[in-house]
Amino acid sequence: MSLRRFLVDPAALGGPVVVLPPEEAVHARRVLRLAPGDPVELLDGSGRRAAATIEQIDRRRVTCRVQEVSRPDRPRPRLVLCLGLLKNPAMDLAVVKLTELMAAAVHPFTSTRTVAKSRDQGKSARWDRLAGQALKQCGATYRPHFSEPAPLARVLASAPAEAARLLLYEEHRGQTLAQALRAAGDPDEVWVVVGPEGGLAPEEVDQAAKAGFSVCRLPGATLRAETAAIAAAALVRFGGMGE
Amino acid sequence: MSLRRFLVDPAALGGPVVVLPPEEAVHARRVLRLAPGDPVELLDGSGRRAAATIEQIDRRRVTCRVQEVSRPDRPRPRLVLCLGLLKNPAMDLAVVKLTELMAAAVHPFTSTRTVAKSRDQGKSARWDRLAGQALKQCGATYRPHFSEPAPLARVLASAPAEAARLLLYEEHRGQTLAQALRAAGDPDEVWVVVGPEGGLAPEEVDQAAKAGFSVCRLPGATLRAETAAIAAAALVRFGGMGE
Q: Which of A160, A234, B78, B94 is placed for a possible disulfide with B104 were both Cys, Cβ 3.0 to 4.6 Å?
């Protein structure tokens, strides 16, 4: 049986007693049927994790007494995924899996071949919620920052020059992502651009190359966009950079 | 617009004219509304891909004329994923993504902490169907072999001694998967064992180690089982083995 985890406001984790937010309180009481003394874990999504026990649990509120707060190191390198806005369920899947894989930020972008609707506002609030659920399931402590979809050019321009900046392009015949990561050495931050369902247009790839992004590929595969993003994140996170 | 792909029987790809299976024929006619002369791609799931055009399309049957048959190389190393049987939707997600990542075989296993129901027969037929749909979406040519769930010990015993044999264990404090893959050199075949939702029991890990599996870990992460399997497959496939 896995530990019961709850997501709380970062400000709430300061004192010895934490009041669970209303949704979490309902879940603790009605679904999990917790009782005073039951051990729980509190996550604030900003890096802190608290070992706690249920103190009071009733219809009005659920409070937890904090035993110990820790802050696991933020994984290095900092991973920033620039992902062409995808239709669901692909986008939601990418959000959840990139959260598990501890991306620091996800910048969805629109480009000439974007097919997902990009006009609705409030997408990032939905992704925040999904990522919060993912944190509770997997126990990771940092929730990625999700920005609202923006045009590709604006996302490219926001990458710092000192970051390793890579772009996956399925038509590329040169270096692989693994080679590009090895060539990058041991950077503090890695940006990876992955196009939408229909791919990036050749002129968008040129534009990114001019902006300082190295073009690379995942050899021998035709992956769906969300799978390419997940595979790239796995390589950055677990491929042995800096080992 | 992506190319229309259909899955056909390997035996059917021998001659110049291929009759689409009933389900594919309905899809071609009613959903895609294809017409004679429309270009299509035929996959047999066993490595062959044919460029073809619709020849005849009516209520009785849909035939395609084959222009050219190719067989892309099977990716090296051959990847065999031994995955603790998972509850859905996690299991279905793993099946689809491992197909995209070109696993050669997936051997689901039952172990002391298995929570998914393992008694239903015919699971592998469902996975075959899902994998077939994944092939059509991503254009990969090899469908993994899915075996029916079997006890862990039997799956471990079926691994050939010459394969690189690895096991992911979240409690392990030694080598990482990236290090284990580098130490393996350039094997023809890599087996990776990933436990079910509740993980492997310590005695099962010992049992695997005695059977010749090297224990390793994905550093700094608590991943859901299906995500660990996908991340491991991405590392084997794209991590630069043998480059």
A: B78
